[in-house]
Amino acid sequence: MSLRRPDGADRPADRSASDRLLDAARAGRPADDPLARLLAAAAAPARPGELAGEEAALAAFRAAPGPAPTRRPGRRRLTVGAFAWIGALAATATAGVAVAAVTLDRGEEPVPPPPPAPTEAPSPSPADSAVTPGGAGPGGAAPSAPGRPGTTSAGPGRPTDPGRSATAELSGLCRAYLEGPAGKREDLLDTPGYAPLLDAAGGAGNVEPFCHDLVPDVGPGPTPDAHPTRTTRPDAGTKDAGARNTDR
Amino acid sequence: MTDELGEAVVAAQAGDEDAFRFLYRRLQPGLLRYLTALVGADAEDVASETWLQISRDLPRFAGGEFRAWTVTIARNRAMDHLRRQRRRPALPVPVQALADLAGDADTAERAGETIGTEAALALIATLPPREAEAVLLRAVIGLDAETAGRVLGRRAGAVRTAAHRGLRRLAALMERHDPPPAAAPRVTAPRPRPGQGRSASGSAHVEPADG
Fold first, then answer.
1. Beta strand spans in chain A (E)
2. Are B124 and B190 in contact (CB under 8 A)?
3. Most buried among A201, A210, B146, B179, using CB within 10 Å?
4. Which three-class secondary structure state does DSSP give residue A70?
5. Which among A163, A157, A175, A160 has a CA at the least distance from the CA of A67?
């Protein structure tokens, strides 16, 4: 760091000139003098080696809490269609008929603790949803895993109709919410992912009672943020271990 | 910043893997370059940690400038990294790491003509840390001065000043090395460290970068 005094440097002349140079580099505009070229080079598009961590990052994304990753192209339409249904659910819930929805929803949860006979899981998704069977198990680590059992449930011949997946989505969000660390729940509700829940409950103040009705078996997470002991599912275990490795 | 980015963020928050991939491709190069200036050869490790945290915290991202959010995470991870490495309280900005990276004055000599990304970054990394960070956040990460100020915990004006000083210094540095190198005394190069980082050795491939 011996360059204390850049003698002879008369440009860029002032802060505004510098701002223009920096903005040009930032916008990828063509560069015409050496300094601009230097900045353009620094901001140049990705070089191949720079994206080497892509798969690791995606693995982390898949393993992370949050809505279950999906690629299904139809998802957006489904979600949109579900909104109407969510409105209906909200009406039912506030009318005190929530019980119906709850039973309906619980019916499609994977039944109580699946015997620890881990056969080959047919596909990753059902395995995911089975990781937290009654909601009694892991806390915040995979809060949303049960969120999509309606669509991927092992239940025989269940059609994926928007109503079911909306219920599943809501109960998933509820679980995530209820199991979330007490201080952070409000933050959760601020995220777009929770918009359906907010809509369905009819406001942030109603979310807690709404969720207690919808998923009565879930209590507030006793040890927020602590990583719970992993379940015995071998596939879940390896997946998490993979994520762990990146977390050095 | 761009709508495209914002849409991808929302989609990724909803679990869309392709959207997350898009975010990675879009943001990782800038993050990695910025991190290289902060932690040198460990930038890739720190970038991995950064993406791990981005994945985890994405559902809690509540809007605003996503680039700033990610680069703040990257910066915090870098500071943690340096703290762990040095076993002493981190300086506000890692002077030593930058000095290590500065390494080799040849980069400055090569900078005059077509300059490669790596050489450009190595040159920027020779700046005093505050200036280097300001320049990188503005030009490489693509933040405006206000947002860069928020990332650094400084006023926008201070960021503009630091970036301006940095640019003048770079201009002087390049000017000095433009004439035949024989005449120019080696102003930088505290100590050449061939093994340090990729900047010293890797600049052999110079990419044409204008355009």
1. none
2. no
3. A201
4. strand
5. A175
Amino acid identity, residue B23? L
Buried-exposed string B88-97: b where 16+ CB fall within 10 A, e elsewhere: eeeeebbeeb
Determine the Cα–Cα distance for residues A222 and B194; give it in Å rounded to an integer: 52
User: How far apart are alpha carbons A89 and A98 in whole angstroms?
Assistant: 8
The residue of A14, A26, A173, A248 whose CB has the most chain B CBs within 10 angstroms, and thus the best one to mutate to test that interface, is: A26
3-state secondary structure of A120: coil
- Which tokens hold the place of A149? 């059992």
CB–CB contact A1 B190 (8 Å): yes
- What is the token pair recorded at B53? 């945290």
Pairwise CA distance, residues B77 & A67, whole Å: 25
pTM for this predicted structure: 0.51
> Is A222:A178 a contact under the CB 8 Å cutoff?
no
Q: Within 10 Å of residue B155's Cβ, how many Cβ atoms?
A: 13
The rounded distance, in Å, linking the Cα atoms of A190 and A198 is: 9
Q: Which helix (H) or strand (E) holds A62?
A: helix A54-63
**pLDDT tens-digit map of A90-127:** 444 444 444 444 434 443 334 444 444 444 444 444 43
Share of chain A above pLDDT 90, in %: 15
Kindly report, residue by residue over A178-209, the tens digit of the pLDDT.
776 666 667 767 766 677 777 778 777 778 88
Residue A70 pairs in a beta bridge with: B16
Cβ–Cβ below 8 Å for B119 and A41: yes
Rounded CA-CA distance B13/B6 in Å is 11
Q: Which of A57, A62, A191 sits opposite B59 (nearest CB)?
A: A191
Helices (H), B16-155: 17-39, 43-57, 66-86, 95-102, 106-110, 117-124, 129-135, 145-152
Is 80 exceeded by the pLDDT of residue A61?
yes
Cα–Cα distance measured from residue A186 to residue A197, given in angstroms and rounded to the nearest whole number: 12
Closest chain A residue to B162 measured between Cα atoms? A15
